[in-house]
Amino acid sequence: MSAIELSITDRLRSSILVVDDDPLVSELIARQFTEMGLLVRRATNGLRALMTARQHRPTLLITALRLPHLDGLSLYDRLLGPEAPGMDAIVMSGYFDPEAYERCDSLGATPVEKGSRFWQQLREALVDLLPGDEREAISRHESWDDLKQIPSTPRILIVDADPRPAELLKSRLKKFGIEVLTAEDGFHGFQVAEMKCRA
User: Fold this and answer.
1) Of 19-28, 111-120, 176-185, where does mean pLDDT reach its minimum?
2) CB of 4 closer than 8 Å to CB of 43
């Protein structure tokens, strides 16, 4: 999917590029900002975002930390430079390790964790980063309270009678911020899935 221009308005100046390979997340964020009158474009991976940002330079980049082809911080790093004055970035993830926090800090990007406080953290970051009239519009906008929660981490269920492959996958996927659930058979897998859906 190529970047999509969702809304154009003369009221507010900032343009936002939202980059996430999860279409639910990018759609929720894009819809929220479009309702506020901001110009929003989307991209599904780092390379598409790089091309879009070079054609239509955003004033704010909101990107997932982990992306196909080019991660969010590398994308921001490539967009920074003398030709990119005034561009800020918010980096989203369900899990930030100390190295990711360090990279955010060194690039001047604002980390925002997915989960129960996602919208609150995003709103606070926007209030800090956007100009005065836009800051006020974001602060006053009432729809923040009604937004669907962004899951903190992707979750997968591995069903296998042999626990060794599941443990290997679990240890590797944890490094990418993915929660791994395991079950020894389909019946137990269904129970685990049902229990986690209620949580």
Assistant:
1) 176-185
2) no
Rounded CA separation 41/16 (Å): 6
State the pLDDT at residue 144. Answer: 66
CB 178 within 8 A of CB 154: yes
- Tell me how far apart the alpha carbons of residues 129 and 126 are, in angstroms, rounded to a whole number: 5
Which of these, 188, 134, 137, 131, lies nearest to 159 by C-alpha position? 188
Torsion 80-86-91-97 (CA) sign:
positive
- d(CA 117, CA 150) in angstroms, rounded, equals 9
CB count in 10 Å sphere of residue 76: 26
Cβ atoms of 90 and 119 closer than 8 Å: no
Tokens 């900002």, residue located: 33
Give the residue from 64, 56, 55 showing the smallest Cα distance to 18: 64
Q: Per-residue pLDDT averaged across 111-134, rounded? A: 85
Share of the chain above pLDDT 70, in %: 79
Assigned CATH topology for domain 5-146: Rossmann fold (3.40.50)
User: Which distant-in-sequence residues (6+ apart) come within 8 Å of 55 by Cβ?
Assistant: none
pLDDT value at residue 6 = 39
For residue 168, name the pLDDT band (cuts at 50, 70, 90): confident
Distance CA 157, CA 166 (A): 9
Which residue has better confidence, 20 or 117?
A: 20
